[in-house]
Amino acid sequence: MRRIVKRLMILSAAVCLLIVGLFLYVIGRTPEIKNEKHLAHVDWLPTEASDITYAQSDDFGWFQCYECTISRDAVAKLAQREGWKLEVKENVFASLRSSLGLPALREVDGKKMDLVPKALFYEDRKPNNGGVTVIYDLELGRLFVHRSHR
Which is it for strands 63-69 and 50-57: parallel, antiparallel or unpaired? Predict the structure, then answer.
């Protein structure tokens, strides 16, 4: 009986060390982020999209951030294809531009910020905070899409 208890304790300790080691490996890694600026085309966006900048990581907690110039008609078709129900919304922040390494969209009251005064907007957030956020700047004709682990 003592032998079985001793083996179970050793096995439990080994499992705990394995879990702690895996946890330390995951939090200690620097995720690989691919970042491209001012591209003419990417596969999933319509051919009408131009000046495309994106950042993405396929690591644990993956994400994709895209911004591009595109017409409202092309956005409507893309939204239909992707299942995004776009609604008009005012004063939306496209805060993901900083992760793309792009300058602020506008200057408001002397402060540079990524404010979209009038937008087409869609968001589907999951309990883990993953999901998709879509912002189309009606004034600038710029589309912002952020997708993350869902």
Answer: antiparallel
d(CA 114, CA 123): 17
pTM of the complete model: 0.75
How far apart (Å, rounded) are the C-alpha atoms in residues 23 and 15? 12
H/E element, 5: helix 2-28
DSSP 58: -
The total number of residues shown for the chain amounts to 150
Whether 72 and 138 have beta carbons less than 8 Å apart is answered as yes
147 Cβ partners below 8 Å, 6+ apart? 63, 64, 131, 132
Segment 48-96, tens digit of pLDDT: 999 999 888 776 667 888 999 999 999 999 999 999 999 999 999 887 7
Which of 16, 12, 146 lies closest to 84 in space, CA to CA? 146
Query: Do the Cβ atoms of 106 and 118 come closer than 8 Å?
Result: no
